[in-house]
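Retro notes, item 3 of 5
We never archived the inputs for the 3-methylcatechol complex last cycle. Fixing that now. Sequence and ligand:
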Amino acid sequence: MNVKVFDTKEAQDLLKAAANVGSEDGSARVQQIVSRLLGDLFKAIDDLDITPDEIWAGVHYFNKLGRDGEAALLAAGLGLEKFLDIRMDAADKAAEITGGTPRTIEGPLYVAGAPLRDAVSRIDVNPDEDAGPLVIRGTVTGPDGEPVAGAVVECWHANSKGFYSHFDPTGAQSEFNLRGAVSTAVDGKYEFRTLMPVGYGCPPQGATQQLLDVLGRHGNRPAHVHFFVTTDKYRKLTTQINIEGDPLIWDDFAYATREDLIPPVVEKIGGTALGMKTDAYKEIEFNIALTPLVQGRDNQLVNRLRASATA
Ligand code: MBD
Ligand code: FE
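Structure as it came back at the time:
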């Protein structure tokens, strides 16, 4: 068609009316954002000559995305969530906040409400034949390297099929399987006794995988374990560790892998005494360094809708 209408008065008036910028009513912030995003879309339609058929394919795609409940999954897969991390990293750098364990994305599969234990928690509730025993332990320290008492370390990860409890399409896992929370004692130590996870793959029939297919991308993550670390004194940390040796470690569809978040996996014996399912087990030491509050507050706390459940 090769026509350009974006700069016409008719199109600009339409944009202004639709976003309602400058109105007494509504949210000025939402008006500002909608005006910009809708304007960028209008301009892209002109520039790329996006056809009506393509627009309606996109509109109906959003319906499927919502039906599948995958908007947050797509946000991870398109790098939107990683982009927010890049911005928070840059903000920290500009504020000269250095050190600390690197953040990496939360992802869409956290569930609030895991039972809180003192220092140690065994979190494999359901048997999983294909998963070997794993201990993840470490020390939470503050900005001066001092152990932090009373830090709440939460972790969550997938089973040997790459499925997370609460979101498992097979229904095989009970609530909070492979999800735990421990409070550190004076020594700052935490420990989870669990099973080795396998990487996640997007639902094959879902909207996210549908778009990834068209982009010629896969929808898989390497094996990983998520963490939240929360205290009164320091900023909350959202991070993950990767399981060393996973072939997808640097090919994560959600771009969450970071150099400092690949701790070694060590072969150990003595698991029976720890209540593990075999005497031989694997151990990962993951020490966690927190960063200071900024003017007494956590300036990078992220609020988003999160699932919750009761044990
Ligand atoms: C996951 O387990 C995950 O961590 C992310 C970011 C996206 C999908 C599944
Ligand atoms: Fe995950």
